[in-house]
């Protein structure tokens, strides 16, 4: 490892030690920095000064992500897709009741990754669901609905079987697609972090420190009230559409995998 990279790496651990309010974490970060410095015969003050002069420390930010205009159909599943991506990239979110706007909280690089993935996967999700609806396979299914009729001065509820509507099939397809994408990204993230932790001592502490910083920023910044109802399962269910959506999610091109935060949060090899 070059001396420049070693100084940057040690400096990153020192910043983590200085920024956390948890005494145990601070000691752990400092100990990790000291071990690296001792092994490389580097003075901690030199490493701290080098890191400070080389780059400005990144901090979490809030960004508004527009999902769509009020009244546009399908925004709930669009929002589900973004939230699934955000969960795998260390970004916390608030969302408006209309599913039109998401407030993303995290490091700018992570939010950039979320937006890039979302732009690509949204197109793939819509195209795949359109193709599925054209295939018409959902028409072989039906769903039970409650119909209320006025008889003899009172309401009579009757359960009847109705064909699956196209909008029901689309919502089920896209909801399953978003869920599968979230699972794929989460698995990829775990693999990347595991590899980084095994090859770079101290990475686990850095990632933990990053998560704490985003969480604290979210708690101090978010003004959200209540809960979003868009994450509920569709009232009518199409097993065929869900199965097809899951399959499309498995085949979707991710393009950009979730990644460890870029400098200065990332430990360099």
Key phrases:
alpha+beta; single chain; three-stranded antiparallel sheet; two-stranded antiparallel ribbon; 8 helices; 269 residues; disordered C terminus; 5 strands; elongated
Offer a concise description of the structure:
The protein has helices at residues 3-19, 23-40, 44-54, 75-87, 108-135, 166-199, 203-221, 239-251; strands spanning 61-66, 92-95, 101-106, 142-151, 154-163. It is α+β, with helices and mostly antiparallel strands.
Task: Give a written overview of the molecule.
The protein is an alpha+beta fold. The chain contains eight helices and five strands, in the order αααβαββαββααα. It has a three-stranded antiparallel β-sheet with strand order 1-3-2. Strand 2 and strand 3 form a beta hairpin. The longest helix is centred in the last third of the chain and has 34 residues, at about 165-200. The N and C termini lie close together (about 5 Å).
Task: Lay out the secondary structure.
Blueprint lengths: L2 H17 L3 H18 L3 H11 L6 E6 L8 H13 L4 E4 L5 E6 L1 H28 L6 E10 L2 E10 L2 H34 L3 H19 L17 H13 L18
Helix pairs in contact: 1-2, 1-3, 4-5, 4-6, 5-6, 5-8, 6-8
- How many distinct beta strands? 5
Strand order of the largest sheet: 1-3-2
* Beta-strand residue fraction: 5-15%
Q: What is the 3D shape?
A: elongated
Sequence stretches where pLDDT stays below 50 over 5 or more residues = 256-269
Can you count the helices? 8
- Helix percent band: 55-70%
Report the mean per-residue pLDDT as an integer: 79
